[in-house]
Every structure is written in structure tokens, then in C-alpha cells.
Write a structure and sequence with these properties.
The protein has helices at 20-25, 37-42, 52-58, 72-80, 87-105, 107-117, 131-141, 143-153, 160-183, 193-210, 214-230, 232-235, 245-251, 254-257, 266-303, 335-348, 358-363, and strands at 14-16, 68-70. It is an all-alpha fold and 366 residues long. The protein is elongated. Residues 299-308 have a biased composition (Basic and acidic residues). InterPro entries: RNaseH-like_sf, ZnF_BED_domain_contain. Residues 31-52, 283-319 are annotated as: Disordered.
Length: 366
């Protein structure tokens, strides 16, 4: 980062996947006790360790307090792969894979199914996100053609009860696939993390109560536990690894936050409170940093006889859209004024939000 000219005050966090090489790279600057080894070990997508000597040399001179955040979507896939540990579900999936394999190995069967429905089976791949869901979804979509051709070819296919279980499994995995598709976006996805996780937890609770398959109900319960454990650093303010940054990103996006401010859930309201405190502290900290920069700039201006007013600092507040809009020279942002801005913003959340994105909302406030 020094080679690229990126100063440490511009870096809030670094997001990586859960590969063991990525975890090792940030081990020296990751808070002690961060539970990353479990993710690396049981992740089907975990990468092999790079050569230790190479990694040590590469990060030997890093002297910055950087917090590493594991990729949310990558971690979400670890929750999904809990289904592989449920024996009865794994048996059905293995049988579904065998049917898919038969079709993919037979050019005759592949051509016949293409002629009948214009689609073919999809194989799952452990390193591809939502691959199990995609395989199950495609099988259910072309179920009639699969059964007919498998029968003509003399192959064993799925039993009616197994098709029914696949249908329930599809219902279980659908919200995970949908949120994966949304959160893997390159832009503005952090503000969607908190509501997405709560939405998935709510879905798992509803599914556990409504499904007629006891093994799938048990699976939903295990997935809930896995989510609460893996995402405690986002959802549990009492967890020692808790980072309020994700909740803050949600809070300042009105298109998302408006759905949470009135939710009667103590955990959600506590997260929003933590987000407010984070914003106040971040603004206050940055104001102090700008004051120091401003003093240094004043000395430099005295040395230049024909210099104009000093340009505005490039080190803008992380959440500058919550600062008071003004064309005046720099002003110190008091904690009380920041809280007033937050109160005003929360009042605006009670009104319909017509903007498509949080960025559009704040640009209108300029």
C-alpha cells in the first residue's frame, strides 16, 4: 500500500476471503482471539497456504493498525455448506449428483433433454457460490424431462419422496442464493449486510417451524447457530470481535435503515445505537486529525507569498455526508452538532424515501 501511495488514514478496513493464506497474511495485525481458523479449515473454498517465507517477507514491514474483515458472502457459503454435514440431506444430494453425472456423461441423454425443454442439468461445484442451490433448482425445473429420459435410458432416478425433499431444500436455500447475488456486488453492498443477515435468520426460524421434514428442521436450527457464531462480529455488540462499521454502513443508507428503525427487536436497536456512536466517534477523530493538518498547512502558506487559500484536505471524513453542509472554511465538528445531525436524519427516515440508493439520498442534501 505504501508503494501505491495509499496512506493508512484512508484505510478503514481490509476485506479478504477466508483462505488460510489470507488469514495468515493479517495474523500479525488481527486482534487476538479472532476465530478464523475454523473458517479456513472447513471451507471447501479455502486456499492452500502460500510459502511461509514469502508471506513473512511480504508483510514484514507493515506497521499499521488494520482490521481485517472476512468476506461476508464467502462466510455465508460456509453456513450453506452445513447441509453437507446432515446425513439424510447429503444422501439425497449425492443421489441428485449421480443423476446429473449420468446426464452429463451421455451425449444422447443431453441432446434429448435439450430437445425436450431447451435446458440441461447443472452440476454443483464446491468452489462456486450457490452451486448446490443451482443444481437443485435446475433439477426441479426440468423434473418431468429428467424422469422420462432416465426411465427410457434405464437409469435409477429420484423417488417421489426424494423429489419432495429437494423441493423443501430449494425453499430453504433460495433466500441464501438471493442474498448472495445481492451482496456479491462490487458497490454499496456493505450497507445491505445487516438487514440481509437478519432476514436470513428470520427465514430459518420460519422454515424450522413450517417444514414437514424433521431433518431439514434440524438443519435449519444448525444453520441458525452457524450464522450466529460466524457473524457475531457483525450482529453481537457484546462479542469481543464486534466491528460497528457494518452497522454504521447500514445506518447511513436510508433506503435500508428505514426498514430497521421501527423494528421491535432489541438486538437491531442496539446495533443502530452502536452505529450512531461509531459515527460520532469517527467524525470527532477525523476533526482532530484535520485540525492538525490545518495547522501544518498554515505554516506552509506563510512561506508562499503568492499562494491562494489552501485547498481543502483530501482526507475527507469517512461519513462526510452527515457533516453540516457548508461552503465556509473548515469548522470543527462538535459531538453535540453531530448528534443533532443524526437526530435530524432519523426524523427524515419517518418520511417516504424516494431515492433508489443511499448515495442519491445524500447527494440531494448537498
Amino acid at each position: 500500500m505504501q508503494d501505491w501511495g495509499i496512506s493508512d488514514e484512508k484505510i478503514i478496513t481490509v476485506i479478504t476471503d477466508n483462505g488460510s493464506n489470507m488469514v495468515a497474511a493479517f495474523k500479525r495485525i488481527t486482534p487476538e482471539g479472532e476465530a478464523t481458523t475454523e473458517d479456513s479449515e472447513d471451507s471447501p473454498m479455502a486456499e492452500s497456504d502460500c510459502e511461509p517465507e514469502t508471506d513473512d517477507m511480504r508483510y514484514q514491514h507493515i506497521d499499521m493498525d488494520i482490521q481485517r474483515m472476512p468476506c461476508v458472502v464467502h462466510t455465508l457459503q460456509l453456513v450453506v455448506h452445513t447441509i453437507q454435514k446432515e446425513a439424510s440431506v447429503k444422501r439425497v444430494l449425492d443421489k441428485a449428483r449421480s443423476v446429473v453425472k449420468l446426464f452429463r456423461k451421455s451425449s444422447v441423454a443431453t441432446q434429448r433433454i435439450l430437445d425436450e425443454c431447451g435446458l440441461t442439468v447443472v452440476n454443483d461445484c464446491p468452489t462456486r457460490w450457490s452451486s448446490i442451490f443451482n443444481m437443485v433448482a435446475r433439477l426441479l425445473k426440468i423434473k418431468d424431462s429428467v424422469c422420462k429420459i432416465a426411465n427410457d435410458m434405464g437409469w435409477d432416478s429420484l423417488l417421489p419422496s426424494e423429489w419432495q425433499k429437494l423441493k423443501s431444500l430449494h425453499e430453504l436455500l433460495l433466500p441464501f442464493a438471493e442474498h448472495t447475488q445481492t451482496l456479491q456486488s462490487d458497490t454499496m453492498s456493505m450497507s445491505l449486510v445487516v438487514p440481509a443477515l437478519f432476514d436470513l435468520l428470520s427465514h430459518l426460524a420460519d422454515f424450522e417451524e413450517s417444514t414437514s421434514h424433521r431433518d431439514l428442521a434440524a438443519l435449519a436450527w444448525k444453520m441458525t447457530g452457524s450464522m450466529n457464531q460466524r457473524f457475531a462480529w457483525i450482529l453481537d455488540p457484546t462479542d469481543e470481535r464486534f466491528l460497528p462499521l457494518v452497522a454504521a454502513a447500514c445506518f447511513v443508507n436510508p433506503t435500508v435503515c428505514e426498514t430497521l428503525v421501527d423494528v421491535d427487536n432489541e438486538n437491531i436497536q442496539e446495533l443502530l445505537k452502536q452505529a450512531e456512536e461509531y459515527l460520532v466517534q469517527s467524525t470527532q477523530s477525523h476533526s482532530q486529525h484535520e485540525d492538525l493538518s490545518e495547522d501544518d498547512g498554515e505554516e506552509n502558506r506563510k512561506e508562499a507569498e503568492d499562494s491562494k487559500s489552501a485547498p481543502s484536505s483530501s482526507k475527507q471524513p469517512v461519513f462526510r455526508f452527515l457533516s453540516k453542509c457548508s461552503t465556509k472554511s473548515k469548522q470543527r465538528t462538535s459531538t453535540s452538532r453531530m448528534r443533532q445531525q443524526i437526530i435530524k436524519y432519523k426524523e427524515q427516515l419517518s418520511q417516504p424515501i424516494t431515492c433508489d440508493t443511499g448515495t442519491d439520498f445524500w447527494l440531494e442534501k448537498k
